[in-house]
Specification:
Blueprint: E1 6-10, E2 17-19, H1 22-28, H2 69-80, E3 88-91, E4 97-100, H3 115-119, E5 137-141, H4 142-147, H5 154-159, H6 164-177, E6 188-190, E7 197-202, E8 208-216, E9 221-228, E10 232-244, E11 248-253, E12 257-261, E13 267-270, E14 274-278, E15 286-297, E16 303-308, E17 321-327, E18 333-340, E19 344-356, E20 359-364, E21 368-372, H7 388-393, H8 409-415, H9 419-449, E22 462-466, E23 473-477, H10 481-487
Parallel strand pairs: 5-6
Antiparallel strand pairs: 1-2, 1-20, 3-4, 7-8, 8-9, 9-10, 10-11, 10-12, 11-14, 12-13, 13-15, 14-15, 15-16, 16-17, 17-18, 18-19, 19-20, 19-21, 22-23
Amino acid sequence: MGNEGSHLSCARSDRTPSISSKSHQQHERKARRSPSAVSGDSLGFQRQGSDSSSESGDERETAMVIYSKNSVKASTSSAANRPGSGSKTLVIPNGASKRNRRKCIPDKPNYSINLWSIMKNCVGRDLSKIPMPVNFNEPMSFLQRLTEDFEYSSCLDNAAKCDQWEQMCWVAAFTISSYCSTTTRTGKPFNPLLGETFECDRRDDLGWRSFTEQVSHHPPTCAMYATGNTGWSLEQEFTMSSKFRGKYLQIIPLGIAHCKFDGSGNHYTWRKVTTTVHNIIVGRLWVDNHGEMDIVNHKTGDKCHLKFSAYSYFSKDIPRKVTGVVTDKQGTARWVLRGTWDSQMEAAKVLGTSQHGSKPVFETGEYKVVWKRRFPPAHLEKCYNMTVLGVEMNEIEDGVAPTDSRHRPDQRLMENTLWDEANKEKQRLEEKQRAARRLREKEAELATAEGKSFPEYQPAWFKKTKDPITGNLIHMFTHEYWECKDKQDYIRCPDIF
């Protein structure tokens, strides 16, 4: 990587460094990569007007493919017979039980649907309010997809062992790592139902556990709380706005994440950057993550400014480039970061600063890798391009809450390749949710007419309170879920499925 005494130049205007060291110039000269592209078939549809002359016969289908029950059973049976498709419990030497988790799910069937026939009436609208068939989905709830951010939780484990500025670099690496799978995954996760939950206890093998609940439906909002064995905790309330602009779909996160470390007492916050899905109508889908992110340490005043460069065909920069600078309370640069959000990130300590015209030049120590992507096994390409952790998310587990995403019937039917049945079940669940909302609205009207107050919807495991950092109202974990799980006391869970 970079040698001792390498230099980094940074324009004041965008606060992010451009590397001027010889090692990084060589790094920048690597062959240009085209933006990540996934065929329309990966979402289960064929685009109107796309060139399919080089595609296989199955990919050229424009009508909905109807599978016979025999073919569905064969597909399910085929996946079930694969090595690692089931799960068992292993006994490890210390006497604790460690689960041998599944390694795959049934292959995605070649269902096809014309995307434009559904999306043409959605231009400019918030897609969270528009019913979509499961053909656009992957068999995973958004609660599970958000939990998948912890695939590289080792970044937080390493952060727990470091001082404040290096710790900031590891936290930054963790935030960047959550985007890497979007290069090949363009399937939409299921929108969670109000009151839906997802627990993920991986303390025995990955060293963390998390709990997430859908706390609001309009606007759609989920709240999460996670803890690591090495002394970190992460909580966030995630909400977003999404707009379809014709050629592309843009997702703008609005919630804030909080990460705390027991040892140092450091408290970090950040907000995710914008994600854009390109070529919605014609061509190959590809995803770009772009924008700027500020990670703030509220104990020390340190900041890390990250810049996710938007892809441009005419740019000389490497695609998916991310650069960053860690500064102390006085604005002095302490560490710098460089890399890409789909591959790896490196960090180096700033040894000194000089001036080159209007740009500061940083003398840095040797760069070290703070995050590197682990690519999933080749067979998962047929399983919606999921990661290993993603495949494990929806596996049935005993003792979880009745509202857990693993129990969601339409999602389970889709995973088992029964897409027609899944679409019918999805409509039933959504109508049940609308009926429950109409009932609450009617009860609120009656209470108002009688001069009584009517309480708003209350989540089961999170409580709305004031964020001490931002001053905004957020949902905080009550820490009651795991105790209730031990007792199998789920009386407070709503009937949503």
